C-alpha cells in the first residue's frame, strides 16, 4: 500500500497524511481478514502526483492509496 496526497501543505504534513491514509486502508483490510504480515506500507506524500493539479478535481486524483498485489509463489 502506498499513500499519496496533493501538493498543498508542507512535506512533513503531507507525509503524515499519506501515512494516515495507508493506516486506514490497512485497518480495513485487516478487518476483512487479510493477514497483517502480508501488508507492506509506505507514504509518499506529495512526491508522486498523478496530475498537475489545476483545479479541485485534479487535486483529488493525487489524494489516494495505491494497492499493489504481488504473487510470491
Brief overview, please?
This protein has 73 residues and is of the alpha+beta class. 38% of the residues lie in helices and 14% in strands. The chain is built from two helices and three strands, in the order E-H-E-H-E.
Q: Give the biggest sheet.
A: 3 strands, mixed
Q: What are the low-pLDDT stretches, counting only 5+ consecutive residues below 50?
A: none
SS element count, helices = 2
CATH-defined topology: 60s Ribosomal Protein L30, Chain: A
Helix content: 25-40%
The top level CATH class name: Alpha Beta
What share of the residues does DSSP label as strand, in percent? Answer: 5-15%
> pLDDT average, as an integer?
94
Q: Which shape, going by the Cα principal axes?
A: elongated
The name of the CATH architecture is 2-Layer Sandwich
What is the count of β-strands?
A: 3
* Strand arrangement, major sheet: 2-1-3
Counting helices, strands and paired strands, the structural category is: alpha+beta
The end-to-end distance, rounded to whole angstroms, is: 20 Å
- H and E string: EHEHE
Number of domains: 1
Radius of gyration from the CA trace?
A: 13 Å
**The named CATH superfamily:** OmpA-like domain
